[in-house]
Amino acid sequence: MEIRLDHITKKYGKITALNDINLTFSGTGCTGLLGPNGAGKTTMLKLMTNIIRPTHGEVTINGINVSDYPERALSFLGSLIEQPEFYGYLTSREILNFTGKIKGLKNEEIKSEIDRLSKITQISGFLDRKTGGYSRGMKQRLALSVALMGNPEIVVLDEPTFGLDPKGMSEIHSLIKEISRDKLVILSTHLLYEARDLCNRVIIINSGTIGHDSKTEENREMLKITLESDYNNDLDGNIHPFRVNGNEIILEKPPDMHNDEIINMFSRNGMHVKYVEKYDDLEEIYISLTKDSGYGT
Fold first, then answer.
1. Which of 22, 108, 144, 244 is deepest in the core (most CB within 10 A)?
2. Hey, where are the domains in the chain?
3. What CATH code is assigned to 220-282?
């Protein structure tokens, strides 16, 4: 299972929403597209799902060009793009039945899928209620059922927890973690904690370009060192603190050094280490990349 974006540029008139993007998404797990509003996240997902077409470049799903062969390419994919709305006079069962027919499923397959999905997304209790009376959380769970109809191997989700209360967000997070065990899930979010919690790969998009891809830094490990006294600015070797705040030091761990060697180096320079722990610098990277961002398309 794979989605490739090769030299993708998307322009709206004089505005460049995405600029020469090259990305590959493959295997199971969850990849998060993280960025501020207007960064280009939704534009990228719309290109993957053929809602819009690129100005330059191509998108392929499992080697099939999405623009040239959309029916074949999108047969591998389910999606939830922007905020879901449904005809208020239809029930969940009717919407899922219609979705199954569009995807070419037989009547028995559709019935089986509705039973399976209603349990997974917890919509069994309102399957036969008209969607006009649904809450935001109910609509979101139905939209996820629509995306999962036919058991696609790739699932694309655009801010799937938007507008939900904490309980609803927790339920959707649990569902995403479950489906990403054996599917490729690509989701957009502007929430740092959501990206941390759900994603094994995080890509930061800003102003239509890729600012950070955690996959390219898989071997990079940051440490937070807490000393018994303040740092004295005197370290030998190849350790260079990234940030110092009193007795707390953030540094990039040299790939050829173990933690005990780092502790010994501090000790040789008269500094005794209390704690060593892994440090997640995603927030600092995000703020650094997006600090001058405004709202775009």
1. 144
2. 1-213, 220-282
3. 3.30.70
